[in-house]
Amino acid sequence: MARMRIEPDDAPTARLSDGTLARVSPSGFVSGSELVVDGTPQSHVDLDDPTHLHFEYVARMGAVIDRLRMPGQPLTAVHLGAGALTLPRYVEATRPGSRQQVIELEPALWDLVRENLPLPRGASIRVRIGDARAGLARLPAGLTGAVDLLVSDVYSGAQTPAHLTTVEFYREAAALLAPDGVLLVNVSDGPGLAFARRQVATVREVLPEVIVLAEVQVLKGRRFGNLVVAASAAPLPVEWLPRLMAAGPHPAKVAQGSEIDEFVRGSRPAVDGDATPSPKPSASIFDR
After folding, report:
1. pTM
2. How confident is the model at residue 184 (pLDDT cuts 50, 70, 90)?
3. How many Å apart are CA 175 and CA 172, to the nearest integer?
4. What SS3 class is residue 263?
5. Which residues pair with 102 in a beta bridge?
6. Where are the beta strands (DSSP E) in the chain?
7. Cα(62)–Cα(90) distance, integer angstroms
């Protein structure tokens, strides 16, 4: 049976520009804290163990990140929409010396996170305030063609804004990538996966090497959930991922090659003139 989320009355909060409420409170299920925006869990952070990736889709992103370059080698990374900065903290912990840029739309949210979930001392993580797409053009020129990892995980409430789902957006983002740099995109969708299929087709229009990682029932389009899209101009390091995904805790799958061809069949890439935001899940999906 689902359990309702109960927030402590004294949990730190911030009012965002759209009127929604952001809150940082202790996780009721594991160690660490959760950032919740408008009732939607956005991030889980464990300050005592930043390698603890509680949300399954974030753990799948971490599995791809672990395969980039040599183990422990510093990365140059850009994060579009990082919530409580779970992945920047993970990269800092597992790849000391990494240089990271974060673009976050809401200054009040960043203030809430900075005050209650401070970053590790000495971490090279620069947070810039602004729209993710507009912020790409304001990043240091030296990042163009030099980024090892680009993460797009931008949500307004429980939806990804339409202007961050298009061919034009992904072209602007991909311009930052090194020749073998990797783009990771968090895509949420429900039964039928019409939005996710179109997103994969859109990403593949820009970066030809694409895989999708998701829990099996989500990938089959049987329930709402998160799919991780990984893409690059170069072949992706996937040799060990299927076995890792199948190990659980909930069996997951890596779709690649002909499976991606079938996944996107009949889906037209989204462009600026016809894009839509990601579908909004029902509130009950976040009950525990």
Report:
1. 0.93
2. very high
3. 5
4. helix
5. 79, 127
6. 13-15, 21-26, 33-37, 40-45, 76-80, 99-104, 125-129, 147-152, 177-189, 209-215, 225-232, 252-255
7. 8
